[in-house]
Input
Amino acid sequence: MTTLRAIRPYWQIPFVALLSAVLAFAGSFLVSKQYTSKTRLLIHAHDVTFLNSTGTDPSRQQPTLTDATLSQALAQTYAGVATSRTVAIAVVDRLRLDAPDTGHGPIHALEKAAALTYKCTRAFITYGYCAGVDRREKAIADVVSGADAEQLGATSGAAAGQPGSYVLEVSGSGRTGVEAMQVTNALADELVSVSAERFRTTAQAYVKALQKQVDLASVDVTSRSAAVAKYETDHGISAADAQQVLDAKSSDTLQADLRNVKADLADNQAQLASVEASIAATASTATSDQQITTGRSGTSVTTKEANPVYSSLQSQKAVLKSKVKGLQARQSQLELQIADAPPTDLNAQQARLAELLQDVDLAKGNQTALTQQLQKAQTEVAVSESELTRIDRAGVPAYPVAPKRYLYLAIGLLLGGLAGGALTWRARRRQDPNLPEPGSLEDPDRQATRELSAELSGGEHGDLSDIPEPAPSLNGHPRAGSHETLVNGSSQRPSPVDNRGGA
Output
């Protein structure tokens, strides 16, 4: 009973807290739900063409670009594309997310009113006014804000949490689970389409540019060949003279080949000498000792096997020896060809003809190199359509990610508890106007009354805990008619009145 009497004045606190929590929890159902779905895309590691403008693999052109850096760069690039306005517009048009809302009913109307109130209140606090938003622009903004793309990383080990894979996780949101699934799948499909379209456009532009270069190289070869023919005609150079020029060119080519062979031969001989020195300093076998302990006894095992370093050096030595023998044979043949070649002395006209023929050869070499690049680019266009492929399809989420109803419940309990405490204090203040403020000192008259009751509780009057406390006056003295009267500075209790016989 004492406990119930002590907590009875505070009944408003739990009541208001529970009421506020229930209202907040019920109000959370007026907030529009938001669902999120996810899907994954695979970035082809050996066919990445998004980061360049030539339709070729940048990892082959940039050998210092590591796989981890390349995957991270591609993932960040595609994440920016996935959250772009262009992709969002394509998703809105594909799913018709800007169509008029066909929902009806009181709950739907309350949801719209709550969403509009929240949006306008936030806009007014932030910007000072609430601007109207077009339905299509709102749908595009919702897709952009709900879209996300992240690179997956390791989930365990020393590299846990560090992105380094070629898997891109795309997520999208919607007001229903089905809409979230559709938006996510549309985002992934549009991302693949954007990648393919950009690659196709860039590669085709690169092919056109190469085709122009090949055409110019062909014209150059034709013009230089015509210059050679004109020079031979103008100067009356015969076929024998032309053959002599060709022989001279052939002799010069043989001399250049001989110099290259001698250089390669010296290089391989030096490598062979280095490998032989390493073999002489390396043991052919390797010995390993193992100690096996079983209970109280121990056994030593010595293993002798072929040294892998020695075997590798022997393989290198055999390869270098074969190269040296091949270069020596080639050197001998070139020397014989040079010795059997006719004299290479040319007159002025033949020397000029040799220069013109050399220009033709350079033009033909340029034409050949450009033609090879053109064929490679055309192959890339025909084979590689996109560097992104779908791994899976997004599913329908079972639960929404917002609103967090437990947060509404917790906030309702907190605010309700504070409101209940304030109401309890106001009710007690109305009953006792002299109730001190929370944290202030107690009234002196109330303290004196408690002390007097404690002193008289052991006298003839028995328990005086039910004696009412005096009502305070403005000057701090008890009012007339109170149950206690100050007599000679002491407190006395008046005698009880006998109602049976008068005073």
Q: What stands out?
A: The longest strand covers residues 163-174. Residues 177-234 form the longest helix (58 residues). Residues 94 and 186 are 8 Å apart (CA to CA). Strands lie at 35-43, 148-153, 163-174, 285-294, 297-306, 388-390, 485-487, 490-492.
